[in-house]
Specification:
alpha+beta; five-stranded mixed sheet; two-stranded antiparallel ribbon; 16 helices; globular
């Protein structure tokens, strides 16, 4: 979502972001006859080929652009990587789409690469249909397009107020002063987060999603907060998402308390981290491409197409992971039951068979079947809100600050993992 990312977004990134970083970053072909414990048995890697070294870009702090690193694998046939007990990597559009859509072959359960384990599961991210579908049904009526449309005036107001706070100073950190503050203001109202605790909540979500050593503690803190909020909503319902979850039903029976806590906590995580990433990457690109920036100034209606293109080229959730349920032939690969697979969605979005001139960001692209919000049973329920938020951010910013640049001495630092993000994005402009 702004992005609401439980099934909304979070379905795709939480299953790919946990664990420890890969040490070797080189991509060349290697040969190996080593044996690995995988899928419960001892198997030789020579039956899973070709074998490549692959950096899944899972570092909390890194100084290389993670999107650029993944692009090195563009147009490669599927290959096997031996890290994390082994997994298949798929890079093309149809491969990634089928990984997300084929629930008869692929499961979300235990699908992390690297694998992770929490005492209390993420819901609905860590479940498959039909139960996952029932969990989605709790959130779906709370995230209708009509309800999201009603938030548009608030989006415009928040953007204008934030920009007004730094416009006259001639510079800002786009990430910390705008991209992180804007979504939580919108999502906080929708979800029902107390205003005075929103920054605390944002830090907890960021810690969980990016600091591997502190994930468990952050998750427990989030669940504790949500538990308190749900208990209040049981006593006194309000017009917010927490109240909707607290009083929901599954199969005609009131939702179990622990299920409500885990479901709302996962929604909480997804609502606070993906849109800041989307905004950051979009404005980094625009700062270096004045001709396209001026397009948005002169034709604000192009913001919708611009948002779609930025979601295509810079999907904040660039990877999706699953586990094969059984042996099968899949896009030329002989999968074994229990094999982990990773689809590189950001790379698939550069597939020339699906996108004309895919390296070019074209705000007037006629066909853009990007999968930034996933496809299939785990498609993002918050995609409508996320699109609106990004589109309005592009419009309001360029109405107020049409020309801006990145300072010449800027050195970027990035977050890897399940959400690719920049730690900072300094911008400056003439006043």
């Amino acid at each position: 979502m702004g992005g609401l990312a439980t099934d909304p977004y979070i379905c795709t990134f939480l299953s790919s972001m946990m664990g420890r970083p890969v040490i070797d970053q080189s991509p060349p072909m290697v040969k190996s006859t080593a044996f690995y414990n995988h899928g419960g048995g001892v198997v030789s890697t020579d039956v899973r080929s070709p074998v490549r070294e692959f950096d899944i870009q899972n570092y909390y702090h890194q100084d290389n652009d993670p999107f650029a690193a993944l692009r090195e694998y563009r147009d490669l046939d599927p290959f096997w990587c031996e890290a994390y007990d082994g997994f298949w990597v798929f890079t093309r559009y149809d491969e990634c789409k089928d990984i997300m859509q084929d629930t008869s072959l692929f499961s979300h359960v235990g699908a992390g690469v690297p694998k992770y384990e929490l005492e209390y599961p993420l819901m609905p991210s860590e479940f498959d249909p039909p139960y996952q579908t029932k969990l989605r049904s709790v959130i779906l009526p709370l995230m209708t397009a009509a309800k999201m449309d009603r938030l548009e005036p608030r989006m415009h107001t928040v953007c204008r107020d934030l920009i007004a706070g730094f416009k006259d100073q001639g510079h800002c950190d786009m990430v910390t002063e705008f991209a992180r503050k804007y979504p939580i203001a919108i999502f906080g109202d929708l979800f029902g987060l107390p205003v005075e605790r929103r920054e605390e909540f944002r830090i907890l979500a960021e810690t969980f999603l990016h600091d591997l050593d502190a994930q468990e503690a952050a998750w427990n803190s989030i669940r504790g907060i949500i538990k308190e909020e749900l208990e209040e909503r049981h006593k006194a319902p309000r017009d917010d998402m927490l109240s909707g979850v607290a009083h929901s039903q599954i199969d005609g029976v009131p939702i179990e308390h622990d299920v409500a806590i885990n479901l709302a906590s996962t929604v909480f995580l997804g609502g606070l981290d993906t849109l800041p990433s989307n905004i950051g990457w979009a404005f980094r690109y625009l700062a270096g491409h004045p001709e396209q920036r001026h397009q948005l100034v002169e034709k604000p209606e192009l913001a919708a197409g611009a948002a779609e293109e930025f979601l295509r080229v810079y999907p904040s959730v660039p990877k999706t992971a699953r586990v094969a349920k059984h042996d099968a032939r899949f896009h030329g690969v002989d999968l074994k039951g229990g094999d982990a697979v990773v689809g590189l969605v950001s790379v698939a979005h550069l597939d020339a068979e699906k996108f004309e001139d895919p390296e070019t960001i074209n705000f007037e692209r006629k066909s853009n079947r990007q999968m930034a919000f996933a496809v299939g049973s785990h498609r993002c329920l918050g995609s409508h809100l996320a699109r609106h938020e990004l589109e309005i951010a592009l419009q309001e910013w360029h109405a107020a600050i049409p020309d801006y640049r990145i300072p010449a001495d800027t050195k970027f630092a990035y977050h890897g993992g399940g959400v690719f993000a920049m730690e900072h994005l300094p911008l400056e402009w003439d006043v």
